[in-house]
Write a sequence for this structure.
């Protein structure tokens, strides 16, 4: 079972800026934790981060034959990208959308997600733990499908 | 660590109707699974189900001194109840909102949640596993707070 | 053929208040007339009135095995209750929505019905006769189904 | 007691096209059934069908001295015709609006009716039986008025 | 100087129905008064009334070579007809829009006019005198143009 | 018969600026023409111009006992002044709203008038002739009332 | 003179939670103060608190013959309950709506009240003193009516 | 304790016009009653009335050093004046907004108040008694502050 | 292969008015060109033009058994006619919507088409060539269907 | 005559995924067919595909001196890219917007195109034939310009 | 080169109130700094402050023959005054709109400016330096015009 | 003091296209002028231009340790990029938003800026001088901070 983890724009700065808000955990540390969690759950993870909408679209096209599912934190593109939505739709893969902060507590324009409507599930507000819960939920889902 | 699980309106019918859609798992079985999961994570859970908005408000007021957090599936009241929102705000407890289906794939009026804006986090779309992930996320959060 | 008639909030006051507007017919008299009409059409009716959204939801869950259909005047909950909508959906029963007054002649917020979208049919504006027409339409529908 | 039945645009094609959706009943058969029903209820009916908004306006102007009420299925003009609304208002006659399908289950633009706000009552969703219920409701209403 | 006067839907009923609201003046009497007024101002008027949007469009196309301007009371089509708007635009003639009642005091949907944006001027609320003022304003305008 | 003519903000600049757009007629010349027209129609006119909303409100309060009606070009306050609307309502006088340009051809925010809903009638788009037509319409109206 | 005081959802927690925000005054203390104030003004008060919309509707139906007026703090139901609005309308009693906080300073969804449109008057923002002012205003109103 | 009472546009006409609607009480009589009420409550009041938004802004700037609070009936400027809102904000004084009629029962554009969001509290619908209740509420508030 | 070409309101004036805008090509010349084009593509075309919405509805009903598809330029009815939309739906024929000008560059109310949602395809902005492209696209589509 | 064909995001996956929906034709095959069609029409085509908004902007800037026009299928950027709109505007080239599916039959957010308002023409819904019709329409347009 | 500087409502209180927010600089000091800056740039400045919309309109009308341009901080009238917009339009002078705070960071109703659409340019958020930058930008613009 | 100047999409074409609109100044010449201006004000500038949203995000992340502030003309991304907004927020640097044209005079969708809400200040409409004023304003701001 192979999972692709996609981190959207500005997430490469995690832990480097505003640690009082986003905590001191860096993206590298999140990835290390996800690798460990995946191993524990009998799966394998790869990582991709980009500030570019187009590169994220391309990264979703690539795993077609290789990956069984995707965990994505689309960052700011959550609210503006129809292209990522279309890429997910066209991939046919189960995709879990995760957010570190609870986006429903923020500005009005962050209440609308172009991704949620094509995602398997959405997890928002648990800090970096949102990634772990999302990975866990995706793997459980893939197991369920295999067993049915 | 004591957690209250609240099930909103119509969730008492789970597994009894439309099994082809919502699966054959009954609310009793979900509660059994949650009890097991809680035990595994070193916590204890109590359950409350009601079709009445007022009773759900009262159930949130009750745990004040006893419970450390709440996992709630507000069902249809998600979209219409300011009273439950106010009860959560006033309880001061961390509350996790869960949904069995992915509400962002459904009718327009289900896209607006009065609860998300006062919840710690939101989990939607993982079937009955949404409850497990929510319980897990809440317990992790309570541990983090205790440790900091 | 067994039909449940549900009267929503404030309908228990019919005939007791504002007779110049709503007429002098009480809810008891409406129920008597419906019983007679049902008998004439070869059916049987039961009645339920509540001011509570949650109790109406519960009343819709109960008839599952017993009733063949429901005639509901959801009163003010027409415009605010997603929970009653969900209960109807989950019951799988044919439901006819009736209103004594023509709701489309009233305030803007009364133009939106959460119930109409899941009802078999809607009848509005014929005074207490709306109930008779609704009962009649529901029984005709049940006969058609049985015969096809 | 004389009633005018008005059928709006495209209703002349009933039973000829898409019988799997609208059934095999033709407009002629509906009219025959309405004539019988009217006779049974001690009334007399005339019929008018047109695809033209202007002709429907004119048909409502004509009955002024002759008819006691109108049953109208305004079809697509329900949602766009202020002219038919004005004709009804100016006729001073009681008008019942009927729809074969439940328009509240359809596209957003079909949720708004220019006619409902000036109708005596509205009946929607009972198939061709909507006409029978509408005729019945109108005749009951005319009797009530005569008797008071 | 030749002017076409167009009366929209339902205006043929003026004076025949609801005289307590619209007065006892018939459309024939309005036309007689307009003929007299036109004569006094050195112009000549023709009349056209129709309940059909299409016929009104055609009547605007016809005068192309003959008439110097149009006074139109578009009635209910004021709020719904892009076709009449287009016909006016394409005619290149100065058109004055008149209304017997003050449409800005009425329902919300009557506040929007598709015609006003392509009219020379708009007169609303002076009863049947709106026609006289409109004819007068149009003739003054045509004189001004001729003299400049 | 005494009429007050009120000119709103910026109208004092008529004929002094942008003559290519608004023509070369000054406010003084308009007033002279209105005086002549009033005399011809057997009435008397007074004038008031102000750039201040408050002064226009006060001017409407003053005529209470003296004037029979008001012709007002509220200029920019048409779209923003509830205070002038209230003053008109409270005066109980018939008020005619006039505009030199056709405001329905202009920016969206000029389509909404706070005045039209409390005016006897509205005249828009006839250049300075709008004032003459408005005066004429008001005097006709006052005559009609006196004669009935 | 007998007045019913109704406290909506979550108001039973006043003074028990978040005293830094809502003050240390409990609902019991408010009721005691209201009883004293009423006595001073020559009236008598009864109290009702519920978290349930349906029970509040029923409480408004009950006083029909007994009470002269109602002071209600509808809490969260202010913004969502058409049923309470209908109950007030149907009771025919003068009703004063009060709020402890100034609801116009809060979230957008709290700006809309279904109750204000059927209330005699509204008082918002004076802390628990809103109840005293509301009681006072209601009694003054009842005196005025009696004296006229 | 010194309080400034501000009366907005058109309120100078109270009791002089439309007595059947607004009652026969003049602004002078209201001020006399307020002076008496203030004396009874151990405070002193000054009065200011203007039809001009700018003068009301200036009147709010003036009391800076002298007054302890303001009771304002902003009349029509309630719905249109950001300038008065800003003056209140900048004054730093507690301000009570009062309305004679219940503005929530009136036109849509009267539902939005630019003042409520910066007021201490709002009182609407108690006739001229709204002023007395507002004065009372303001003085209570000032006492509370002084005592804490 | 037989195709019906429908021209909506005002298109009969093409080439006769405003040639500087719409070009000098008349509707007759367009039809001649379409006949030639159809012949070249092995198809046959018939033509219908009307200013009346109802006649266009009827023209769509007629071809039922005869035509294989329709090319329609609905003109102004594009934006207002649910009746034409319903006629197309009910015909079951593939329909291509064409516009001479690019409607997406024009007024806001021209951005909404009731027809596009039920059309096979839409072509807008190529001048009279839009008809040729539309005919071509329809014939290709019919060939594809026949071959599969 | 040289034409640039631009394919937006996700179009590189055509024919590789979801062949049951989008058909088995790959982007390569579309390009081959366009090259042939162009040759037949006496023109030459180049191709550009990118998932990146910025690269598409750059591709439109490049052809400035070389290309005579552009055919673009902006894919998901149709609905979100002001940058591509600006690039088209600034290029001064005639641009034809094409879509394989009929976007007016899809989600609401796909009804708004930032491109249509600056395009020569729009073609939507003819499958891959939309490209052929668009190329054809563009070449005809360029010929017309050259000949006039 | 002569420039008029206009300060809108409440700006006369700058430096006197809330110095912690708006700084300690008074309007007099701003004017002194502007005079110096203007001198340095070879221009001359005059000043006008008013809380009255009407007086600001009049101040813009006055400079007609004297001033070369205007720098205006319209304060609260930015969001509500069509009259000031019209005065600017009619003056034909280049006008620079400045704001001390960044209005785009504030309440929703402050995001809309009636002035920006008729201004040469807008500067917002640089504290009192916004005036200096605005003066500078206006003088540069006037130089450019003179030199071209 | 080191400042980064960022030019958004299509700005690389300045001076090369549509010189009659945007002037003949190229981006290179703007940069040269900015370098000179910066030197004169005792600062140093670097430049970055990209058509790609992702690259602009990355460019804002880079300067973290090096630059004291940013002047950005986000071009079309002003209206669509939440990602650039987030990058600015996360950088913690003061950012000045500049626009060559006055965006408030343009299409509706250009009235909304995702950047203004997180910018220090905004300058729009002064042609290429907007950059100079923005640089100047930013440097003044940085000096003020250093001195306080």
């Amino acid at each position: 079972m192979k999972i692709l983890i996609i981190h959207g724009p500005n997430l490469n700065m995690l832990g480097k800026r505003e640690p009082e808000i986003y905590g001191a955990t860096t993206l590298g540390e999140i990835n290390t934790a996800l690798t460990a969690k995946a191993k524990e759950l009998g799966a394998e993870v790869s990582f991709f981060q980009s500030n570019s909408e187009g590169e994220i679209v391309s990264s979703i096209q690539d795993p077609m034959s290789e990956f069984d599912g995707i965990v994505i934190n689309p960052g700011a593109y959550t609210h503006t990208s129809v292209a990522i939505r279309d890429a997910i739709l066209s991939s046919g893969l189960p995709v879990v959308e995760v957010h570190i902060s609870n986006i429903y507590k923020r500005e009005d324009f962050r209440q609308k997600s172009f991704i949620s409507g094509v995602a398997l599930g959405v997890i928002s507000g648990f800090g970096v733990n949102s990634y772990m819960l999302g990975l866990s939920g995706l793997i459980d889902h893939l197991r369920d499908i295999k067993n049915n």
Q: What stands out?
A: The first strand of chain H starts at residue 2 and ends at 7. The beta strands of chain H are 2-7, 44-49, 69-73, 95-99, 121-124. The helical segments of chain H are 19-22, 27-40, 53-61, 82-91, 129-147. The mean pLDDT of chain H is 94.
